[in-house]
């Protein structure tokens, strides 16, 4: 006999998902999780109210009849223009997101290669080696922060990188206001070459890190390209002007059509007002959404979270460089010395190996 309890739980779960989905939909529409587009359109939509009332009165009392054929053809052309602007803005936004991800991936690649090679070598490293390894972490994060601060057009002297900079390094960065990210990449490359000269990086591994540095440069160039090349003014101006003209003249055609059906002014005016608000929210909303995506780093809620991403990446890098690597455990009976053939794959490590081995820290010490 089939148990009926899962069906009851399934129905209850379905109802909960439906309620949560609807609440999330309302939460998103009202813009409670960030900057609402309703706030950006509030003035333009409120201006539709007196325009609709005035034009409805003109049509109803003045006997004006406005043919809506022109608005139909104008609406088709405007829709194509707005969709093109929205598509182009989305492509710019997603391209910027791709460059941001490539820069993060490159920083992680360099960090993992350097820290694993640092832990791989036995013996006590010199004092310059831990300092060189930590400089790579600092310069990688300085590259990321310098790039995003250049994009959002703020001064490089921010609290996020105060702990990453020395006074001398800050003075060097201030000399190159438009190429600070590239300068930091140069510093990372110099430290990597120094580690290779000391024998902590193999030539092949240095080549792999050079590929990551090339991705850093490519991401920086792509970000700057999007920043310096805005959407053509002709497209932005034409779409905005036609959207405003179409919305604010729409009450003439709407009131004329409603007047042919209804003989009362309030009936015509209210229908015209309601239809104009819906039309204005649609047309002006698409135009405003495209404008918000065209510049992905205006430091608003609709843009890429550059600063938050940098802070999280810095925390990740600190954890990556500070935490030791787990010890290499021995065979199942780890108290005795055995060859590699005695190690059992998948067995639970016991003995001396399970209690921890000698792990070289970032400061050059050896954990007992």
UniProtKB/TrEMBL annotation:
Annotated stretches, region: Disordered: 330-368
Main location: membrane
Keyword set includes Flavoprotein: no
Assigned GO CC terms: plasma membrane
UniProt superkingdom: Eukaryota
Subcellular location: Cell membrane
Keyword Protein biosynthesis belongs to the record: no
GO MF entries: chloride channel activity
TM segment ranges: 37-60, 72-91, 233-253, 265-286
The protein's name in its UniProt record: Bestrophin homolog
Pfam families: Bestrophin_2
Coiled-coil positions: none
Species: Prymnesium parvum (Toxic golden alga)
Alphabetic keyword roster: Cell membrane, Ion transport, Membrane, Transmembrane, Transmembrane helix, Transport
Annotated membrane topology: Multi-pass membrane protein
């Amino acid at each position: 006999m089939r148990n009926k309890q899962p069906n009851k739980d399934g129905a209850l779960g379905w109802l909960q998902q439906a309620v949560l989905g609807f609440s999330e939909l309302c939460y998103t529409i009202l813009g409670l999780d960030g900057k609402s587009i309703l706030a950006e359109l509030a003035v333009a939509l409120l201006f539709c109210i007196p325009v609709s009332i005035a034009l409805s009165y003109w049509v109803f009392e003045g006997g004006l009849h406005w043919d809506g054929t022109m608005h139909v053809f104008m609406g088709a052309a405007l829709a194509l223009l707005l969709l093109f602007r929205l598509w182009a803005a989305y492509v710019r936004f997603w391209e910027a997101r791709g460059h941001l991800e490539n820069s993060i991936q490159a920083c992680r690649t360099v960090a993992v290669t350097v820290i694993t090679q640092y832990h791989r070598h036995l013996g006590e490293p010199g004092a310059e080696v831990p300092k060189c390894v930590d400089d790579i972490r600092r310069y990688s994060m300085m590259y990321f922060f310098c790039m995003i601060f250049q994009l959002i057009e703020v001064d490089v002297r921010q609290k996020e990188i105060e702990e990453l900079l020395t006074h001398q390094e800050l003075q060097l960065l201030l000399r190159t206001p438009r190429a600070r990210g590239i300068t930091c990449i140069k510093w990372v490359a110099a430290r990597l070459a120094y580690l290779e000269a000391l024998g902590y990086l193999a030539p092949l591994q240095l080549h792999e890190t050079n590929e990551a540095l090339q991705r850093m440069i490519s991401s920086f160039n792509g970000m700057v390209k999007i920043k310096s090349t805005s959407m053509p003014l002709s497209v932005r101006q034409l779409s905005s002007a036609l959207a405003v003209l179409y919305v604010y003249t729409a009450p003439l055609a709407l009131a004329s059509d409603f007047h042919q059906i209804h003989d009362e002014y309030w009936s015509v005016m209210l229908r015209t007002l309601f239809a104009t608000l819906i039309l204005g929210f649609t047309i002006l909303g698409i135009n405003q959404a495209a404008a918000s995506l065209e510049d992905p780093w205006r430091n608003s809620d609709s843009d890429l979270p550059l600063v938050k991403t940098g802070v999280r990446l810095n925390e990740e890098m600190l954890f990556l460089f500070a935490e030791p690597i787990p010890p290499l455990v021995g065979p199942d009976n780890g108290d005795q010395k055995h060859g590699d053939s005695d190690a059992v794959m998948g067995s639970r490590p016991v003995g001396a190996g399970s209690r921890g081995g000698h792990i070289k820290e970032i400061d050059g010490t050896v954990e007992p």
